[in-house]
Amino acid sequence: MRAAAFARRTRRWRIITGAGLLAGVLLAWLMAAGPAAGQPRPPAITDFTAPAAMENPQLSPDGRSLLFVREPQPADPAGTPNQIVIIDLTDPGEPRATRLPLPDMTVRWAAWGNNERVLLGLELMAQVRGAGFQAVRSDGTRTRITEIRRSQIMSVRRDGQDPVMLFDFSSRQFNHLFNTRLDQVSDFLLHDPDHVLLPARSSAGSLNLYRVNIETGRARVAVSGSEATIAFFTNAAGEATMRWDLAGYGQDLRILVRAPGTRRWRTAQRVPVNEFQRLQRDYEWTARSDVHDEALVYWNNPETGTTGLYRYAFSTRELAGAAFSHPEYDVSGVIVDPLTLTALGVTWSDTRRRLMMFDEDINAHLPALAAFFGEDTLAFPVQRVGERVLIKVTGPGEPGVFYLYDMDASQIWPIGDRQPLLARRALARVSVHDYGARDGTGLFGYLTWPQTPAGDPPPLVVLPHGGPEARDHHDFDRLAQLIAAQGYLVFQPQFRGSHGFGRAFAEAGYGQWGGLIQSDITDGVRDLLERGLVDPDRVCAVGWSFGGYSALMQAVLEPGLYRCVIAGAAPSDLPDLLGWLEDEGGEVFDYARRAMGDPNTAMDQLIAYSPARRAREIQAPVLLLHGRRDGVVPVEQSRIMERALKAARVEHSYIPHNGGHNIATDRQWAHVATRIVFFLFDHLQTPRGALAQARREMDSADGEIVDIIVEIDPFDN
Q1: 264-273, 429-438, 651-660: which has the highest mean pLDDT?
Q2: CB-CB contact of 552 with 611 (8 Å)
Q3: Which of 39, 63, 358, 614 has its CA 20 to 30 A from that of 709?
Q4: 272 burial level (CB within 10 Å; 0-12, 13-18, 19+)
Q5: What is the 3-state secondary structure (H, E, C) of 702-716?
């Protein structure tokens, strides 16, 4: 958020509420000040590739302090480690920050144990006793394992003193191969500030729930399970009221429940594991309920055709009522309090993001907050402690900024930006673009507008989303903003097959991966061309996963339209992909067969919908990006596409990386982002200067992604 905007909003808030607003002292190392003069320029690549400075902040149980993990920022001195930052908010107008360095530590998460101690989920490498053990790989080869990756919790005072590891690994009680994930908290026990509940297996193999002292690290059994137990669940009072056991030699799952205050478990449900997988698909568990034998689940209501949030009772095997349901749109997310683990509210989207909180006190303040921050942002509470509420504000031009709000006084204070480098720059405007499909169906997409001088229409980058049962939102989109910052208009169509608009809309894309879905995308592009909004000679398609598949299919179906294609982690040969999924088996294959097409009845169509089988129809240069460890779309799909493009003599580049299906690290994102920007410049504009030199260096890197990140002026092309 810009300083000037902050001042304007401060004055407006005083008018709305009639209450004094303490703007607060912005943390100089966290909140970015606006420029002294002139209009901020679009972001550089390095602004988008910097790690988040504030991720998942959390209020202490008394609401007087804030905790978060801070990754080193580009302006920090070399060698700056990750840090735990604790902000004293006793006086929110005068925040005081304490930073605890974490050298040589891999921190998975951070949370409050109580008001004085912090819990850190650490990832460690542990030595296996003796000579280790042998593991058999999927290809049949054997390897000896002498160390394993283990996660464990460290408790430390808020001043960084008195570190304690939870669970005593000096004895054999916990130090064995059964316990590789000891950082999973079942309950933070807010009513018992000295303890937390953690699951762990005993040396005999039983999964028990332990009450662990965060001052000493010592543990005692709170609830006993068995070797068959795989999970415990607690209620709001911290009582274990549900557990899952395997039965029938691992073929069945028993769901056991007990009433609060009682000791006896009873079986509420016993189902085959494969049927439970179907149950989880039909009733996707998302948060705990305040009733001991219930869970909050996503469920698609056949009467409305939309997915809502419902209560599912294991004892009756039926739904016990709706927590929230919308007649037209699917619920897109549930906001869960990080300490109480209870559901605070839900979000959904029409063309913009919407919010409903279960807490009526908070709901009463939402209209004023929405008016304060403006219609292009969504201010949603992520945690409540008494009258204090931690609020996150996001929007197309706002990657995330946090505030502390006092409901009793109607006062708000800024805490910090998630991406401070982006806060200094002018992010692109996003609008909703309505258009009609060729069969008359009304559709829409999002346009992210470049900040280029007035004149000729800009180049267009078509950016279809993955899934296909996913959707884009009227929110900050890092890839769309990155591309727009280079001077391109970005179009994100919400085609039939997308999630969020009801079951019928999603299922309209079944069996239509290369058919109706692609025509919906093409119709949106044609509409932009007919309106004269873009340069018809400079159009590229970019996508990841199913979006990458769509980019390839667009080049097949509309060869004269696209100047270039970028496909990341993309399916390319549907029969081959279905064969791989069939070997994997289970619900994933059943869904893929419905979504793509059944190879037993629709093989000709699957072949026609496979870009690799139609590579000779592609005229545009293609960039393929894929992670070698992709377990969703195997990297072989890009290798197949590469071979097909080579045989068809189509200009292409194939760049593998060491990641998985999604971009998991900031380093991987920096590599991929740089490659995308360079490829677009190569084919939509004429690179020169620093960009051209960096491009030459990358071309000499033997096809591997390398560490080249440069500042690019989008107006110098």
Answers
A1: 429-438
A2: yes
A3: 39
A4: middle
A5: CCCCCCCCCCCCCCC
Question: Is 53 in contact with 416 (CB distance < 8 Å)?
Answer: yes
Report the length, in residues, of the chain.
717
By the 8 A CB rule, do 426 and 451 touch? yes
Check residue 129 and give its pLDDT: 59
Q: For residue 378, which of 365, 366, 364, 390 has the smallest C-alpha distance?
A: 366
Nearest CA to 143 out of 161, 128, 160 is that of: 128
Structure tokens belonging to residue 134: 């042998």
Q: How far apart are CA 13 and CA 405, in angstroms?
A: 12
Q: For residue 706, give Cα distances in angstroms to 19, 104, 180, 623, 669.
A: 53, 24, 33, 16, 12
What residue type is 351 in one-letter code? T
Domains of the chain: which residue ranges? 1-104+359-427, 430-573+610-699
**How far apart (Å, rounded) are the C-alpha atoms in residues 675 and 669?**
10
Phi then psi for residue 186, to 5 deg, are -80, -35
Contact between residue 107 and residue 120 where contact means Cβ atoms under 8 Å apart: yes
pLDDT at 352: 95
Statement: residue 688 has pLDDT above 50:
no
Using alpha carbons, select from 542, 534, 524 the residue that is nearest to residue 458: 534
154 DSSP 8-state letter = E
Closest of 187, 190, 189 to residue 199, by C-alpha: 187
Closest CA to 472 of 498, 449, 450, 496: 498
Model pTM score: 0.85
Quickly list H helices, 453-515. Answer: 478-484, 503-507
- Give the dihedral of Cα atoms 289, 294, 296, 298; nearest 10 deg: 180
Q: How far is the C-alpha of 368 from the C-alpha of 345, rounded, in Å?
A: 18
- DSSP, collapsed to helix, strand or coil, labels residue 168 as coil
> What are the counts of helices (DSSP H) followed by strands (DSSP E) for the chain?
15, 36
Which positions ≥6 away from 165 have C-beta within 8 Å? 152, 153, 154, 155, 217
- Beta-carbon contacts of 293 under 8 Å, excluding residues fewer than 6 positions away, are 241, 242, 257, 268, 313, 314, 315
Are the C-beta atoms of 22 and 411 separated by less than 8 Å? yes
The three-state secondary structure class of 615 is helix
DSSP characters over 274-290: HHHHHHHHHSEEEEE-S
Tokens read off for 324: 């929230």
- What integer pLDDT is reported at residue 182 of this predicted model? 85
CATH number at 430-573+610-699: 3.40.50.1820
Q: Tens digit of pLDDT for each residue in 584-635? A: 777 788 889 999 999 999 999 999 999 999 999 999 999 999 999 999 999 9
Q: 610: helix, coil or strand?
A: coil
How many C-alpha atoms does 185 have within 13 Å on its Cβ side?
28
Distance CA(569)–CA(361), nearest Å, equals 45
Measured CA to CA in angstroms, residue 622 lies from 135, 562, 566 at distances of: 39, 10, 6
pLDDT, one tens digit per residue, over 195-243 is 999 999 988 889 999 999 999 999 999 999 999 999 998 988 889 988 9
d(CA 525, CA 640): 28
> Distance between CA atoms of 481 and 93, rounded to whole angstroms?
33
Say if residue 468 is preceded by a cis peptide, omega within 30 of 0.
yes
